[in-house]
Amino acid sequence: MSGCRKRCKRELLKFAQYLLRLITGSLHTDTVEDEMEMATVRHRPEALELLEAQSKFTKKELQILYRGFKNEDPSNVVNEETFKEIYSQFFPQGDSTTYAHFLFNAFDTDHNGSVSFEDFVMGLSILLRGTVQEKLNWAFNLYDINKDGYITKEEMLDIMKAIYDMMGKCTYPVLKEDAPRQHVETFFQKMDKNKDGVVTIDEFIESCQKDENIMRSMQLFENVI
After folding, report:
1. Which of 105, 106, 168, 173 has the least C-beta neighbours within 10 A?
2. Is 217 helix (H, G, I), strand (E, B) or coil?
3. Given 3-state DSSP classes, what are the helix, strand and coil percentages for the chain, each rounded to the nearest 5?
4. Radius of gyration of the chain (CA)
5. Are 62 and 51 in contact (CB under 8 A)?
6. First CA to last CA across the chain, in angstroms?
7. How far is the C-alpha of 22 from the C-alpha of 204, rounded, in Å?
């Protein structure tokens, strides 16, 4: 069991490192290509200044992020298939399709089927440099699959199953098949304070902040971002 967890942790670390390389690209400012890329960003000074004001990144960091994002897709938008391809490369032992779908929807804030550079920057700003409150708000949005402002037990179970499916051999058959449902039952019972069958954002945040066990479990979800 401990060996499997160590392998999972290594996979997650490799994936996080890959995401950082994907985001930043291989930046060498003394090359012609990089100068051209930076010039492209400078053609959008108003948009860049707005993102700098709205996010927790500096102008230089945004230029680097833009380069990496554009390298991935010159159209300046990333679709769901890109998310799925990246996750499938780093979690080949399982099926990451469903989790990548949920994560894509969390980044796609205007729900138009694509993630723009602006969507990407704002989401990344929260995940990397946001406050605990901001990160929990973002996590709530991830679990609120239908975006109606509530998390149902079924939605939480769908996310949990997607994570277990993605981890593949690192969890199965070591953990029982009903492990996701058991975890959800425990989480939901603690979060649904008024027992009305749904978890509001206030209940979610309060429960996470007060319960160390939930916060530790939530760390798993944060790591697979």
Report:
1. 173
2. helix
3. 70, 5, 25
4. 19
5. yes
6. 23
7. 32
In 3-state terms, what secondary structure has residue 55? coil
Please give the C-alpha separations between residue 45 and each of 29, 118, 126, in angstroms, as whole numbers.
19, 14, 22
User: Token pair for residue 150?
Assistant: 């509530």
Asked if residue 167 lies in contact with residue 95, where contact means CB atoms within 8 angstroms, the answer is: no
- In tens, the pLDDT along 52-110 reads 899 988 888 888 888 777 766 666 678 898 888 877 887 788 898 999 999 999 999 88
Give the list of residues 6+ apart from residue 75 with CB closer than 8 angstroms, or none. none
Dihedral sign of CA atoms 96, 79, 218, 152 in order: negative
Cis peptide before 74 (omega within 30 of 0): no
Q: For 78, list phi and psi in degrees, rounded to 5.
A: -115, 135
H-assigned helices in 43-96 = 45-54, 59-72, 80-90
The span from the CA of 157 to the CA of 184, in Å, is 6
d(CA 119, CA 30) in angstroms, rounded, equals: 29
pLDDT digits 0-9 by tens, 181-199: 888 998 899 899 999 999 9
